[in-house]
Amino acid sequence: MPKTHAVTVYAIPNCDTVKKARKWLDANAIAYEFHDYKKAGVDRAQLAGWIKAKGWEVLLNKRGTTFRKLSDEDKADIDAGKAAALMQAYPSMIKRPVVEYAGGLLVGFNLDEWQQALG
């Protein structure tokens, strides 16, 4: 029987980390809603809430192809406002997955953190 967590996973489906996270959720019978932010976007206020909760430095994926393809000017002098604008314009720059659950917010897939929060 699935555990009744109000869990929403924000990500893109073809990401390997997201696939691992979804597999873990399924294996642990945790029901979740999946929000593909590449197709559906991310609400500006919601993104601002994530930044407030975790910090833009945690949310902005600087390792990904999308960020690396930016001009040097776009990569320079990043602050919370600029990071939010970049993530809004290019949702694939958001570290994934982002998971909202009744007790808080998870960014990325860290097994220990997930087991403690959702297990």
Rounded to an integer in angstroms, the radius of gyration calculated over CA atoms is: 14 Å
CATH topology: Glutaredoxin
H/E element order? EHEHHHHHHEEH
Quickly count the domains.
1
- Major sheet, described briefly? 4 strands, mixed
Number of helices: 8
Strand content: 5-15%
Kindly report the name of the CATH homologous superfamily.
Glutaredoxin
The separation of the N and C termini measures 14 Å
* Coarse structural class: alpha+beta
Global mean pLDDT: 92
Would you identify the regions where 5 or more consecutive residues have pLDDT less than 50? none
Strand order of the largest sheet: 2-1-3-4
Second-tier CATH architecture: 3-Layer(aba) Sandwich
Give the overall form.
globular
Classify the helix fraction into a percent range: 40-55%
Instruction: Give a count of the beta strands, DSSP E runs of length 2 or more.
Output: 4
CATH uppermost class: Alpha Beta
